[in-house]
Design brief:
By secondary structure, this protein is mainly α. Helix content is about 65%, strand content about 5%. It is elongated and about 80 Å long.
Length: about 350
């Protein structure tokens, strides 16, 4: 009579010529697939530059959204004229008596020469104004670019030709000169030249003017992407199955243009911030007493400020440089996360 022999195979114990012993099933790891979005998020998290840039951009948006709360906790607002409220803080020319623009524990970023606005609250409200306008312009441009770009690319033929020639016509305009020249015209459509222009009218005019010549580049990119997609097999299969053009665009094409759309959006928004600031700097955008990034640059370029308080330019200048650089780096990181083969 043979003795029982234990045979071990892959973690399973079997007893020969005897009672079977306890069997343990080998551990099998469940393989989980990852969606393109999950892969993009993993690659983005590994990019330290992108993560830091995202936090910087988020910080600016939080500051803009919480500007009223910060102002309330700080105990000051951007509209109080401290040259009248506290004249002892200024000399006869309206320049803060204390050095560095009057920076102190009461006024963290100092006081503005002339009217004596608090620089800290004016800056955070200025960021709020500029970002609100730029986000509104970006959303308008994205919606227009999607509607016209994808429509032209998918339908093709006469529709593509008409939209393409319209885009070419608008691209022929010198955008910067058009922005400057058209702002007074757009404002005059809402308000008589003899009346004072309300701030909301200037805001609407800035959004309309920037949107009018800001959507064409995105539309052309989406058109080209859609032209390539409409010849793919899954689009042809959707057509054969009887899907309507609207369903094909919504279910098949739109999800596949998210990558260029998101990347271009991260580049457009800081561009619109600088355009808005430039228009306000030239005096055709936001004007006092409404705080604005560009309006602060305009004030900093005056002779009174340049000769007496050069530090006034420091805070709005540094904050805008940090925001624009961070947003552009974020755009690079988003592009690399979507397309890891792209060499930076």
């Amino acid at each position: 009579m043979t003795s029982p022999i234990d045979i071990e195979d892959g973690g399973t114990s079997v007893v020969v010529d005897g009672e079977p012993g306890p069997q343990t099933e080998p551990e099998v790891k469940k393989l989980e697939g990852r969606s393109p979005g999950q892969l993009m998020w993993i690659r983005f998290r590994r990019d330290r530059t992108g993560v830091v840039s995202a936090f910087v951009v988020l910080f600016f948006f939080v500051i803009a959204a919480a500007a009223p709360l910060i102002s309330k906790l700080y105990g000051k607002d951007p509209y109080t004229i401290y040259a009248d409220e506290r004249p002892e803080l200024f000399d006869s020319a309206g320049v803060p008596v204390q050095p560095n623009g009057g920076i102190s524990s009461d006024f963290w970023f100092g006081l503005e020469p002339g009217n004596g606005y608090d620089v800290f609250t004016k800056l955070i409200y200025g960021i709020r104004t500029s970002l609100t306008i730029s986000v509104a312009v970006t959303l308008s441009v994205v919606v227009t670019g999607i509607l016209l770009g994808i429509t032209a690319g998918y339908l093709g033929g006469k529709t593509d030709y008409a939209i393409g020639r319209f885009i070419d016509f608008l691209l022929a305009f010198p955008s910067q000169l058009f922005f400057i020249a058209s702002m007074p015209v757009v404002v005059s459509l809402f308000v008589s030249p003899r009346d004072e222009t309300p701030t909301y009218v200037r805001v609407v005019a800035l959004i309309v003017v920037q949107w009018a010549l800001g959507w064409m580049s995105l539309a052309r990119i989406l058109r080209g992407t859609t032209l390539a997609l409409r010849e793919r097999e899954f689009i042809e299969a959707a057509r054969v199955s009887g899907a309507s053009p609207w369903r094909i665009i919504r279910k098949e094409i739109l999800p596949n243009v998210v990558t260029p759309l998101l990347v271009q959006t991260t580049y457009m928004l800081p561009s619109f911030v600088t355009i808005e600031a430039g228009l306000s700097f030239l005096g055709v955008g936001i004007v006092e007493p409404t705080p604005d990034w560009g309006q602060m640059f305009s004030k900093a370029s005056t002779e009174l400020v340049l000769q007496n308080d050069i530090t006034y330019m420091f805070f709005p200048g540094v904050s805008m440089v940090i925001f624009v650089v961070a947003f552009n780096l974020l755009g690079d990181s988003v592009r690399d996360a979507f397309d890891p083969k792209t060499a930076r």
